[in-house]
Amino acid sequence: MGIFDSYQDDGAAHAEVVNAPHKASISHELLAAAASFEAAKAYEKHVAANGKPDSHATAKELLAAFSGAFVDHMVETKGLDAIDKAKAKKAAAAKHDEVFTEEVFVES
């Protein structure tokens, strides 16, 4: 079981955010779920190309970077505001803390 399996429920949120029109009304919760999903995909791709990170902390930093990049991109392309951006990044980080535990890192 890979990390991506832990984020499968966020796939619908990802599709909704990516396919939303410019100036869409996207909640920060929805954006965070989509960012978490995108980060899990990017993390799996990174691990496949570069191997598993040396530590759980490094893996979480990668997830935060991947989700942050997705949030930044969506805020820019969908016309969202800085408040939604900050809230989405915080919510995505909380999701990673909840889902990507030390045990999940060790098992993956």
From TrEMBL:
InterPro entries: DUF3759. This is Uncharacterized protein. It comes from Mycena chlorophos. The lineage of its organism: Eukaryota, Fungi, Dikarya, Basidiomycota, Agaricomycotina.
